[in-house]
Amino acid sequence: MVLVLTIGDLHIPNRVAAVPLKFRELLVPGKIQRVLCTGNLCDKETEEFLKVICPEIQIVKGDMDDVQSEYPERCVTNVGQLSFGLCHGHQLIPWNDPNSLASLRRFAWRIILFNLAYSKHRDMGVDVLVVGHSHSLKMTETVDGGLIIDPGTATGAPVAYSLEPKRPSFVLLDVQGTKIIAYTYEIYGEDIKVDRVVFERLANTTFQ
Amino acid sequence: MERALRKPEDEHTKRRNATCLKIKEETHLRRSGSSSNVHHRNDVLKRRSASLSALSKIANGSERASPRNTNAKYNSDGNNINVNKESNSAMEHAEQQKLMRETAQELRKNSVLLRQAIEKEDLVEVLARATEVLQALRIPTIHPRLYYELYLAVNNELRHLEWFFFDQVKRNQITALKLYEQVQETPHVLSRLYLLIVAGTVYMGVERKLTKNILKDLMEMCSGVQNPMKGLFLRGYLTQLLRSKLSENREDNENEQLGITTQEAIEFLLWNFGEANRLWIRMQYDANKERLKRDQERRQVETLVGLNISTLAHLSGLNVSLYSNVIFPTISQQICSCHDPIAQEYLADCVVQAFPDEYHLQTLSEFLTMCMKLIPGVSIRQVIGGLADRFAKFSNISLENRKLVEDCGTFLAFEKHLPSILSSQGNSLSLLDVLSTLLSLTQFTLKAYPGQVDYIHTLLGFAIDSLRNSNFLSRKAQEKFSYQSDDTNVGSTIQKSLQSSVVLEEGSPEERLIVRLLTSPLEEYRSITMTLKLGNFSTLLSFLRLEMQRFVAASLLRNHAEYRPCIGAVETLEKLFEFIRPLVEESPGEIEFIQQQKNANSSQVHPFHAHLPREVVKVSTTKVRVAEDDSGYFEQVQVLVARIVYLLDETDSSSLFGLYRVIRRYLYRGGPRRTCITLPPLTFACLRLAHRRYKESTLPSGIPSTVESENSAEHIFEFALETLSSLSEADAVTSLRLYLQGALALSQCAFRNDTVSCVLRCYYKSTQIYLAII
Predict the structure, then answer these.
(1) Is residue B235 within 8 Å of B272, Cβ to Cβ?
(2) Which pLDDT band holds residue A203 (cuts at 50, 70, 90)?
(3) To the nearest whole angstrom, how far is the Cα of B714 from the nearest Cα of chain A?
(4) B246 contact partners, CB below 8 Å, separation of at least 6
(5) Pick from A95, A85, A147: nearest CA to A122
(6) pLDDT, tens digit, for every residue of B281-309?
(7) In angstroms, rounded to a whole number, what is the distance separating the alpha carbons of residues A104 and B320?
């Protein structure tokens, strides 16, 4: 049993001041074993904040992160028996499209066709893909038994094209073998709403 | 069995009056009669007069010639003084050690004999052995620390003796009176008095009605020892024995247990305190030793005097009125009259620490008046700071305590007396002392009066005054100022010296204290609006060097709970920027530094960027970055400045734009190094506001869209684009991103014709920048 925190799109300080207090009270050191961050932290202090929660952390580069930062564009990592792919998602064309996301998880054909710049990237070939950029929490199971998780924005930062404040959220994954229990945390006004979703048998079938 | 025990008591009560008279007679007899006693008393009187005359001699400034000090007299010429003194003290030390060893050995031997005698229950032998044990305390002059060791060892034996006496009296082997009399036949004054104290306490335990007389008798007898150190230890012993008895003297027994009222107990203790204090002060006139050493020795025995005060504080039946009417006036009079910095400081501190806070609150004014009379050189910091620290803890405990503190007008009393206390100390009070006293008071005020910004304002004002008045100008700085005044006009020099008459050295304790004076209200309030009410804040801040000013300003921004919107008016915002000006503005030295860096960068790729791909390095030449040691810290702090945008009250969209303009005006002063961090949040906030204004204007019920109005969405877009174009010089990549965001945001709004051109301009600009980057 491993607790994995997926979090991203914080946009501190450019779009919001800080992580909401309610989340900071929840996200304390010593409980979480892994952190997967989809990027757009925009700030060293935020990175430190995440590293304090858990030093075992993977961060990928978002479109608003410092050009000089050393985060990779994407990365693959294993948790338990499952492989996790991490990518911010702004690179996809069209972005936030279920098909392009699914193929990022599996094959890279579509990406290669649309944008030659990405042809150097292989498909990620992972069981679970963690992406961001849309600022809205979403979890979709693909037809071939994979999972795509978008933890949304942890700070409620608005998106550039609508400028409306979003709902702060993150997702905590309890990985047990090939099973994932996902807890979603969202702030509604003054309250935190927690949901529990179970994804059974996520074993990788795409390569067979 | 019970009856048997009670019987002697009944007999005692019957004979009470008779015994009372008897004991008076006895004392009388003892004073004039018994030959050996007379001899000793004369001896003592002689010694006392000798020491008194010595005292007056010292007061007149003449040296006391003591027969013991012949060595020193011979050595008092030429350059050899120091060498001789050293060798002298080394010799003395060795001698003392030898003496100590011998005495301790003797003491051990005698203690064994005493215990054997006690086991045999032979009173006569016990008394003889006890006298031998007590011989150890009659050792000639010795260092107080060594004497204390002996005292402890003897004390231990006397406890056995006390138990033995008590047992003897209880089993009717001897009456307490008889014992009390028999003990007085001991040959030497010091030994006799110790035994007398032991016998006296036993006697008191049995004959409760006589306690007062016995105490009085003991107290008078104790004056017979006029050697300061030995007398102090003797009186310390008396207090120590009384201490447990007096603190157990419970009210529910109607004071019957000891046979004296609390009032009487207080009188005795105050008397003993006065005598002990006198002896203690006399220690400083021991001309045989140099001053520093004497002071050290006095410090080592101070607890013997303080023991009286702490015993007073632990008296049962003590209350506020007794404290304020009887105890405090006497102690304070003692303290004021002793004209000795060590004694005054220690005793004042003792009073502060020993008695409960409630008492201090009631007598605060009197206490502070006493502080005014303390002679220069007493550490005010310790006395007043200690008191303030206690009050701070006290008011932190509960709301009722806090209310009590308020009701007593505590702060007002401090405010009223503090200036005169500080001025009464004159030059002997260092800036460090003043500041640390003020810090303690500030921390107390913050705890006890959470909402009273005025009070903190006053305290900061005191700090400013002390900084201005202090003669702390280091010689170097003075030279600098006089050098400056040669060519610049005098007016500005005076202005300058007024502004910062104190040159605080880097990392000096004074500097740290000022920083803490400034930051402790911030940490307590955790609200920027509260802090902005502190008028003296920025004045005091200006005394610090730039780095520390920045540090304090950053903690002002950092100590605001949860970025709760709090600024609604332009004036408040401007005030905030005035407070944090050191953070926002570029200092002259910084501009130079950046220029140098730029020059260096133009010739070669800066090592800081060497690991990056080529194009990024290109970007970074347009984006001015200075690779300093503290660049991480610098960015962190500037992020705090950038977050000011989120402090604004966003409810009224029409006034918000005015505030944004103020922010930009101040942020522009920071130079490219700051704007690349501080401007993006502002720009994004502007885009959001424009969007919001646009949506409000399209609402049917909304304010009719007046394009010409100052706050229209178009204007705000224009403003944002202006900001972006200035940002593009500092940070091309960020401005490119923001241009694209701006274009996205604009395309959401269906403006009239010029909107299209606006969007086009955005894209045009971003393409330009993109091309420049590639």
Answers:
(1) yes
(2) low
(3) 16
(4) B258, B265, B269, B311, B314, B315, B316
(5) A85
(6) 888 776 666 778 888 888 888 888 898 89
(7) 81
CA distance B18 to B174: 18
Structure tokens at B595: 């220029």
Question: How many angstroms separate the CA of residue A42 from the nearest CA in chain B?
Answer: 10
Q: In what order do the strands lie in the sheet with A2-7?
A: A57-59, A34-37, A2-7, A169-176, A179-188, A191-199
Å from A163 to nearest chain B CA?
6
Q: How many angstroms away from the CA of B619 is the closest CA of chain A?
A: 9
Give contacts of A23 with chain B, Cβ < 8 Å. none
Q: Where exactly are the structural domains of chain A?
A: 2-200
DSSP bridge partners of B567: B648
Interface confidence, given as ipTM, is 0.89
Could you tell me what percentage of chain A is helix, strand and coil, using 3-state DSSP and rounding each to the nearest 5?
A: 15, 30, 55
Structural domains of chain B ordered from first start: 631-696+710-773 (1.25.40.660)
End-to-end CA distance of chain A: 26
Contacts of A14 in chain B (CB under 8 A): 642, 680-681, 684
At B604 the pLDDT is: 44
Mean pLDDT, to the nearest integer, of A47-59? 93
Residues from chain A that touch B681, judged by Cβ atoms under 8 A, are 13-15
Q: Which residue of A has its CA nearest to B564?
A: A17
Contact A163 B748 (CB under 8 A): yes
Element (H, E) at B698: helix B671-698
Where does A2-200 sit in CATH, by number? 3.60.21.10
Sort out which chain B residues have CB atoms less than 8 A from A46's CB and list them. Answer: none
Contact A163 B609 (CB under 8 A): no
Residues A69-92, mean pLDDT to the nearest whole number: 87
- Res A85 pLDDT > 60: yes
Q: How far apart are the C-alpha atoms of A148 and A99, rounded to whole Å?
A: 11
Instruction: Report CB contact under 8 Å: B635, A44.
Output: yes
CB A160 within 8 Å of CB B745: yes
